[in-house]
Design brief:
The protein is mainly alpha-helical. The chain has one domain: Rhopdopsin 7-helix transmembrane proteins (Up-down Bundle). The chain has 9 helices and 2 strands; from the N terminus they run ααααααββααα. A two-stranded antiparallel ribbon has the order 1-2. α5 runs antiparallel to α6. The model has no long low-confidence stretch (mean pLDDT about 90).
Length: about 240
């Protein structure tokens, strides 16, 4: 496989975003190991998993560099969205533990049901009609179709709404550092949602691609600051 310049830029930016997000998630999980807060564990796992739509692009780019061939459509699809419902469940557990413990079972049941139905049909289509749910573009990128788009819209807007409410809860703290962390989380959820929507809706070129991926990368750094506030940001 010979990559064009735009494909190289696409692959590099995807890989940077995924690697940074993996680092962010692992650092948050490491903090959980120190203070034993399950919120940190689930949020760390969430940030690693919420980037799964970019796993296929990153892995396909690496495969292309070293083997000359990218991932097949079926493998690409399986890598990207199959684990998303599981990681989103981790997110909901963390959010509802803090904000809506009395409604936790209902919220988890609703989203887990949607997630299970999605995964069943998604995996089924991967085997019988992968072109019906996605098509490869530029050999390392994908354009999702059909019900996958609807599910991604549900995830993005749920992630945004619940995340902003989660961040707002921290704004009420009298501790200025905790309040600042709440602001960083709100910015992170908004940045991720905007970046995700732009990344999936715009034609990616030398202008739009760096902009969308930099927004996504910034969201990872903001999310990190929301849980592990750097010393230079502390009051």
């Amino acid at each position: 496989m010979t990559f064009g310049t735009i494909q190289i830029v696409n692959g590099i930016f995807s890989l940077i975003f995924v690697v940074i997000s993996l680092y962010v998630g692992l650092r948050i999980i490491a903090k959980y190991l120190r203070i034993k807060s399950t919120t940190l564990l689930f949020m760390g796992l969430t940030w690693i998993g919420i980037t799964s739509p970019w796993w296929g692009s990153s892995i396909s780019f690496i495969f292309g560099v070293f083997t000359g061939q990218g991932l097949s459509l079926q493998i690409y699809l399986f890598i990207t969205l199959t684990p998303l419902p599981i990681f989103f469940t981790f997110y909901l557990i963390a959010i509802t533990d803090l904000l809506w413990r009395d409604k936790q079972s209902l919220i988890l049941l609703i989203y887990a049901t949607f997630g299970l139905i999605f995964d069943v049909f998604y995996i089924l289509f991967i085997f019988i009609a992968p072109e019906g749910i996605g098509s490869l573009e530029m050999m390392i990128d994908i354009r999702f179709k059909s019900f996958t788009v609807l599910y991604l819209i549900l995830i993005i807007f749920s992630f945004l709404i619940f995340g902003v409410l989660f961040g707002k809860a921290s704004l009420k703290s009298e501790n200025p550092d905790i309040s600042l962390q709440g602001k960083m989380l709100i910015i992170a959820f908004i940045s991720f949602s905007i970046g995700s929507i732009l990344d999936s809706s715009l034609t990616l070129n030398f202008v739009t691609l760096p902009i969308t991926r930099l927004i996504l990368i910034s969201s990872a750094l903001e999310f990190y600051s929301g849980f592990i506030l750097p010393d230079w940001l502390k009051h």
